[in-house]
Known about the structure:
The termini are far apart. The radius of gyration is 26 Å and the shape is elongated. It is of the alpha+beta class. The chain contains six helices and ten strands; from the N terminus they run βαααββββββαβαβαβ. β6 and β7 (136-142) form a beta hairpin.
Amino acid sequence: MSGDFLPEGTLRGLPGPLPAGERILWQGAPTTAGLLVRVFHARVVTAWFAVCALAFGLAAGSPGAALATVGPTLLVGAGAVALLWLLAWLTHRTTVYTVTNRRIVLHAGIALPVTHNLPFAQVEGAALRPFTDGSGDLPLRLRPGLRIAYLQLWPHARPWRLSRTEPMLRSVPEADAVSGILVRALEAHADASETALPVIVPRPRAAAQENPGRLVAAE
């Protein structure tokens, strides 16, 4: 999505300009390699076609017949993996994850872009699943009663969590650093929410007799 088609003041990956006081802490996209392996399961597809080619080759009666069956099988397998790579690359190109000091925004969709706004008040917690290449998945646990349809989120959803879906930042590069940013932002929001609530205590007995029923904030 090109910035030339966005309303003035709008940033890529966001539904509109940032409100006053809100700022972007991190913005990124899933890695193509991570999507290819862990979402579109390219390794499984490759292994399947390799096993099929081996079986066809062993079943052939002669080297010529084996080559005639194995060759097309491997060619079809290569085409399938290439198609999966294209899907992974398009997903990478059309996805933007944004973490601000107030919310998480998931903007995704190859044909029909969709933006999911997740204010911190709706997020109960977050986790990190790191991978050896430094990337990682960051599933987000929503508060009870909040639910987004799994198919609306996929592939940006934690696998097999169908009854209580969990939005997930997929294959995020430098996942340790991103998780640290997200945790600090969530903690800061929680602290601000707690301090924003007034502490109410009863007035002393004498004052309460003069002004029955009144409550004042503690100093």
